[in-house]
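Researcher: Next entry in the queue.
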Amino acid sequence: MMYLAQLNIAKAKYPLDAPEIQPFVENLEPVNLNAEQSEGFVWRWQETEGETANIPLFNESNVIVNMSVWTSPDTLKQFMMGDQHKPFLSRKKEWFEPIKAASYVLWWIPKDHIPSLEEAAQKLHYLRAHGETEQAFTFKHLFAAKE
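Model: Structure for this entry, 147 residues:
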């Protein structure tokens, strides 16, 4: 059985302690808790100090990283479009700079695998370089899991 891993990044317009972005920051914990309690949720990455600084893709200031694992694309979409998360998606332009290249990537992993940030960065880089393939894709072109 395969699970769906996802990585998304965003570049904040403001430092995370700025008043302009506080509605986002103050809701990170409740939204993450909601994700963890959602059907299909398996795991999410939680940053330890300095961990992203060693990865060139993430070492810019104000880059926010989110990575998680879900049982299926449908369960991830269900969470994303749910009552607690969707309002924050609609306010994305208030808090984050536009990113011209792909800012998220999906890929299939074996059920017992926990992806690393390095693996996730490689998948996003691959998507940016090669477009959507079975190796790295988006919701626009979901590839089926290969057992």
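Model: The two ends are 6 Å apart (CA to CA).
Researcher: Noted, moving on.
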